[in-house]
Specification:
The complex is a heterodimer of chains A (129) and B (739). Helix content of chain A is 47%, strand content 18%. Chain A is α/β, with parallel strands linked by helices and 129 residues long. In chain A, helix 2 (16-28) crosses helix 7. Chain A starts with a helix and ends with a helix. The model of chain A is unreliable at 1-5 (pLDDT under 50). Chain B has 739 residues and is an alpha+beta fold. In chain B, helix 3 packs antiparallel against helix 4 and helix 18 runs antiparallel to helix 23 (573-582). The chains are: A alpha/beta (129), B alpha+beta (739).
Chain lengths: 129, 739
C-alpha cells in the first residue's frame, strides 16, 4: 500500500454526498484525496495539489466538467496531462462521446459501487494492484 | 442510520430548500436562465443523492421533474405556474420521504406508488420524448441484469461471453430431458445458479415429478456452440450475448480503459491538444503498471516523451497499439462491474443535524487544550497546598489560574454559543412557499423579497421566530396588500412587494416585514378598538395615530369582520408580541396610509446569556432580567399609597403599581416594612411596574437554564442558573410577575 498512499486524487463534484462517498472509499483504499466543488476551484486546486487522477462530475455550477476538461487540457504541461475520470449520471452515448471529446480519459456512470470505483481509480492512477 | 443516509438527509434538505427558492424565483422571472439552471442542477443532484443511497423511487420522481426542467431549458416548455407547482409538489414529496427516513432510520418501503403518481403528474405535456429517449438508450444494453449479478456473485469469473437462462418446463422429465445434466456439460461453463421457479410448496404438496427450476449460467463459449448444445430444449432457453471487449490479453476493465486511450490518441487532428494525448499516455502507462507490466509501461513512457518532444502523438499511438495487440497474458482476474451495495455501518439514532463552521469547532478544540493546561496547573497547586510551606505563593498561583480559567470559560461559552448560531436564511426560506400559496389562494399578485439571509442569530431565536413571522406575513398578504385591481386603481404597480429583511444591529438582530400595501387604517382600528371596548371613545380620540396603530397588539384585537382562513381571528398581534417578548425582544409597527406597513422585531443576538440583577427578598436571592429593569430607587414609605389590596406610587407623573416581592412569593410572612423602600422599576409589554425588595444585589451575566421536570410548569420563573458559591439563582419572569 505504500505506493498507493502516494497517489493523489482530486474529486471535483458539487454534491457533498458524492464527495463523501468517493473520499470514504478512496481513503480506505489508501489514496490521498482532495476536493473541489466545481471546475474553477479545481483549476486553482491543481496548482497546489498536483493530482495523479481527477474524478470529474459533468453538471456543476460555475464551471461544468466538460468546460473544465477542455480548459485543463490547454494548460501548462505540468497539469494539462493529468488523467481524468468522468463519473456522471449523463450516460447517453452522446454524453460519453462528449466527455471523450473534451479530453476525459475514461467514463463511468453513476451510481457506482465503491469497490468498482476503487478498482478503476487504482488502474487509472497507476497504483499497484 | 449509516453515515451516507445521515449525510443524504442533511444535503437533500438543503437541496430542496434551494430548489424551492429557484422555482419560486423562476415563476417571477421565467426567463431567468441562471435560476433555471440552478433549479435543474438541484433536481439533478437530488437524483444523484437518491442513487447513492439506493432510493430508486425518489430517483424516479426527481428524474421526472428534472426532465420537465430540461424541456424548459431546451425551449420545448414554457415556465407556467402549473409547471412550478408540479415541481414543488415533487419537492414536497421528497421532504415527506426525508422526514420518514429521519423518523424510521430507513428508506420508506411504500414510496413506489407515490413516485409513480408524481411521475405521471410530471410527465411532460410536450410528449414523452425525453423519458422515452432515455429508456430507449437503456434498452440498447443487451445484458440482462441478472447476468451482471451472477458475474458479481461469482467473483473472479473472467471472459463470460454468453448468459443463459433455462427454465425447464414442468413436464420435462417425462420428455426424457435432463436439465442439470445438460447444463453441467455446457461448453465453456463458468458459473451456474439454480433457483426454484415458484417457492417450494409444503412437502406433502410437492410433486417430485414436476420441474420447478430456473437455471442461470455464464459461458465463455461462442453463442453458436451454446445454441447447438441447447438445441434440444431451445424452446425453454434464452441466450444472451454479453457486451464484450473481445480482448484475450487484458481483463475487461483494463482493456476498456486502454481502448479509450487509443480512441483519444487517434482523435481527428484539429482537436489535438498536447494535454489531451499526453494524459492518454499517462493513463496507459498507469494501467500497465497497475497490472504489474512495468516493462510495457516503460515503453509507453518513452514513446510519450518522444511524442511530447515532437509535438505529435504518432509515436505514442504506435507504441500503445503495439502493446494492446501484443502484450503477454499476465492479467489478474476481474469481477463484474455491477453497481454493488453501499456497505452499511451500524445504525445510529441521530438527532437533527446542525451544520457547524469548521473554524468554530477548531476554536473549541483549542480552548479545551488550554483548559487542560490550567487543570494541570491546579494539580500542582494542590500538591503545594498539601506541603503547606508557602501559603502566599500558593495564593498567588491560585489567583493566576483563576484569572486564566475565568478567561477560558468566558471564551468557551462564547464559542459554544457561536456554534448555536444559524443564518436567518434558514428561517426565511421556509416562508416562500406558504406566502406564494396564500397569495394564489387570495388571488393577489405579489413578490416576496428576502434580504439579509446571512445575518446570524442564536438557533433558539431563529427557531422560535417561525410562528410570529408567519403570522405577520399572513397579515401582510391577507390585509396589508391590495388586490391587483385595487392597486391599479390607486396608481400603484400591480405586483405588490413584501420584504422580509434581517440585519445585525450591535447585540441585537433586527427582523422586519415590510409591505407596500394600503397601510393600517387608523379609523378602522379606532372603530374596532371601541367595538371591543379596548378603550373608551374619549381615550381613543385622544390617542395619536401611532398609538392607535399600537392597539393592534392589544389582546383580542382584530379589524376584520369575517374570520377568514388567513387571519383576522383576533388572536393575532398580541400573540406575536408575547412570543417576541419571551425571546427577550421587542415588536414595533410603523404604518402609512396607502404606502404600507412595517413590522419590526428587535431580538437579542442570543437568548442564552442573560444579564440579571440580583435582589433579596424574604431572605432569598432572586435574579431580575436586566433588560426589563428601567431604574432602581429608594422611596420613603409615605410616598407609597394603598390602592385596594395593592400599592402604587407616582413616578415622574405616572402612577406605577408596586408589588412586594416578599409578599408576592410568600403571603404569610409578616414583614417589617422599613421606612425607606427599595424599589426596582421594570417595564414589560409597554407597562411600568415596580417590585419592592429587601436589598439590591449585583449585576451578573448568567447562562439561563429553563425550568424542567416537575417545575417545568412553574410560572413567574424564567429559569435558573448556578451562582459561584453553588446556590441556585432563580430568575424571575417579569411578564408573568405582573399578571
Amino acid at each position: 500500500m505504500a505506493e498507493t498512499a502516494s497517489k493523489r486524487i482530486l474529486v471535483i463534484d458539487d454534491a457533498s454526498l458524492v464527495r463523501l462517498y468517493y473520499r470514504d472509499a478512496l481513503e480506505r483504499a489508501g489514496f490521498e484525496v482532495a476536493e473541489a466543488l466545481n471546475g474553477l476551484e479545481a483549476l486553482e486546486k491543481l496548482l497546489v495539489f498536483p493530482a495523479d487522477l481527477l474524478i470529474v462530475d459533468i453538471n456543476m455550477p460555475k464551471m461544468d466538467g466538460l468546460t473544465f476538461l477542455r480548459t485543463l487540457r490547454r494548460q501548462d504541461p505540468a497539469i494539462s496531462a493529468t488523467p481524468a475520470l468522468v463519473i456522471s449520471t449523463e450516460s447517453g452515448p452522446q454524453d460519453i462521446e462528449a466527455t471523450h471529446a473534451a479530453g476525459a480519459n475514461f467514463y463511468l456512470a453513476k451510481p457506482l459501487a465503491q469497490d468498482v470505483l476503487v478498482a478503476y481509480v487504482a488502474m487509472l492512477s497507476g497504483a499497484p494492484a | 442510520m449509516n453515515e451516507f443516509l445521515a449525510q443524504f438527509l442533511v444535503e437533500s434538505r438543503e437541496l430542496v430548500e434551494h430548489a424551492t427558492d429557484d422555482l419560486l424565483a423562476l415563476e417571477q422571472v421565467p426567463d431567468d436562465r441562471a435560476r433555471l439552471d440552478s433549479a435543474f442542477r438541484g433536481f439533478h443532484t437530488l437524483k444523484g443523492a437518491a442513487g447513492i443511497v439506493e432510493f430508486t423511487a425518489m430517483g424516479r420522481a426527481v428524474h421526472a421533474a428534472e426532465d420537465l426542467l430540461e424541456a424548459v431549458r431546451s425551449g420545448e416548455q414554457p415556465v407556467t405556474a402549473d409547471l412550478v407547482s408540479n415541481c414543488l409538489a415533487c419537492l414536497d414529496q421528497v421532504v415527506r420521504w426525508l422526514d420518514a427516513i429521519d423518523a424510521e432510520g430507513a428508506l420508506p418501503i411504500d414510496a413506489e406508488a407515490a413516485a409513480a403518481r408524481l411521475v405521471a403528474r410530471l410527465a411532460s405535456p410536450a410528449g414523452p420524448s425525453l423519458a422515452d429517449a432515455r429508456a430507449a438508450s437503456a434498452a440498447e444494453d443487451p445484458d440482462p441484469p441478472w447476468a451482471g449479478r451472477l458475474r458479481a456473485d461469482t467473483a473472479g469469473v473472467v471472459g463470460a461471453r454468453i448468459a443463459i437462462r433455462y427454465t425447464p418446463s414442468a413436464d420435462c422429465f417425462f420428455r426424457g430431458e435432463d436439465p442439470l445434466g445438460l447444463m453441467s456439460r455446457l461448453p465453456g461453463l463458468l458459473a451456474l445458479e439454480i433457483r426454484p421457479l415458484q417457492p417450494w410448496p409444503p412437502l406433502e404438496e410437492l410433486d417430485p415429478f414436476a420441474a420447478n427450476l430456473v437455471i442461470d449460467a455464464l459461458s465463455s463459449a461462442s453463442s453458436k456452440e451454446v445454441a447447438d448444445h441447447l438445441r434440444p430444449v431451445s424452446d425453454q432457453v434464452r441466450i444472451y450475448a454479453l457486451r464484450q471487449d473481445d480482448d484475450p490479453v487484458f481483463p475487461d476493465r483494463a482493456a476498456k480503459v486502454l481502448k479509450a486511450q487509443l480512441a483519444l490518441l487517434s482523435a481527428p487532428r484539429g482537436q489535438e491538444m498536447a494535454g489531451r494525448w499526453a494524459s492518454a499516455g499517462r493513463v496507459a502507462a498507469n494501467v500497465l503498471r497497475h497490472l504489474g507490466m512495468e516493462a510495457e509501461a516503460a515503453v509507453i513512457d518513452a514513446a510519450l516523451a518522444r511524442s511530447l518532444a515532437a509535438g505529435d502523438p504518432a509515436a505514442l499511438l504506435a507504441a500503445l497499439e503495439a502493446t494492446v495487440n501484443a502484450a503477454p497474458a499476465a492479467a489478474p482476474r476481474e469481477g463484474g462491474d455491477d453497481p454493488g451495495r453501499i456497505p452499511s455501518s451500524p445504525q445510529d439514532a441521530i438527532a437533527r443535524a446542525l451544520r457547524v463552521d469548521i473554524d468554530r469547532i477548531d476554536a473549541i478544540v483549542n480552548l479545551t487544550g488550554e483548559l487542560t493546561v490550567v487543570k494541570n496547573a491546579l494539580g500542582h497547586a494542590a500538591e503545594r497546598a498539601r506541603q503547606g510551606t508557602d501559603p502566599e505563593g500558593l495564593a498567588q498561583v491560585l489567583k493566576q489560574q483563576h484569572a486564566l480559567l475565568d478567561r477560558l470559560t468566558a471564551e468557551l461559552q462564547r464559542s459554544v454559543l457561536a456554534i448555536r448560531v444559524l443564518p436567518l436564511g434558514h428561517l426565511f426560506r421556509r416562508f416562500s412557499r406558504p406566502v406564494r400559496e396564500l397569495a394564489r389562494t387570495l388571488g393577489k399578485t405579489l413578490r416576496l423579497v428576502i434580504e439579509g439571509e446571512t445575518t446570524e442569530a442564536d438557533k433558539a431565536v431563529v427557531e422560535a421566530l417561525f410562528e410570529p413571522l408567519m403570522h405577520v406575513l399572513r397579515n401582510a398578504v391577507g390585509h396589508g396588500v391590495e388586490t391587483a385591481e385595487q392597486r391599479r386603481a390607486s396608481g400603484k404597480p400591480e405586483t405588490a412587494v413584501i420584504q422580509l429583511r434581517g440585519r445585525r444591529q450591535g447585540e441585537h438582530v433586527v427582523v422586519e416585514v415590510a409591505d407596500d400595501g394600503r397601510g393600517i387604517d387608523v379609523v378602522d382600528v379606532r372603530r374596532a378598538a371601541a367595538a371591543r371596548h379596548l378603550a373608551t371613545t374619549e381615550a381613543l380620540a385622544a390617542l395619536s395615530d401611532d398609538a392607535v396603530v399600537d392597539l393592534i397588539f392589544a389582546p383580542g384585537f382584530s379589524t376584520v369582520g369575517a374570520v377568514t382562513d388567513v387571519s383576522g381571528r383576533g388572536v393575532g398581534m398580541d400573540a406575536v408580541r408575547s412570543a417576541i417578548e419571551r425571546l427577550g425582544g421587542r415588536v414595533a409597527v410603523k404604518s402609512r396610509a396607502g404606502e404600507g406597513t412595517t413590522v419590526r422585531f428587535v431580538l437579542p443576538f442570543t437568548v442564552m446569556m442573560t444579564r440579571v440583577m440580583t435582589v433579596e427578598a424574604a431572605g432569598q436571592v432572586f435574579g431580575v432580567p436586566f433588560d426589563a429593569i428601567v431604574e432602581t430607587l429608594q422611596l420613603a414609605r409615605d410616598g407609597i399609597v394603598a390602592i385596594g389590596a395593592a400599592e402604587a406610587f407616582v413616578l415622574r407623573g405616572r402612577t406605577v403599581p408596586l408589588i412586594s416581592l416578599a409578599r408576592a412569593l410568600d403571603a404569610d410572612t409578616t414583614i417589617a416594612t422599613p421606612s425607606v423602600a427599595n424599589i426596582v422599576v421594570i417595564e414589560t409589554g409597554g407597562q411600568l411596574a415596580a417590585l419592592e425588595v429587601d436589598r439590591f444585589g449585583e449585576r451578573l451575566d448568567v447562562m439561563l437554564k429553563p425550568m424542567d421536570g416537575l417545575l417545568g410548569g412553574t410560572t413567574l420563573v424564567a429559569g435558573t442558573t448556578l451562582l459561584g458559591d453553588g446556590r441556585v439563582l432563580i430568575v424571575l419572569d417579569p411578564l408573568e410577575l405582573l399578571q
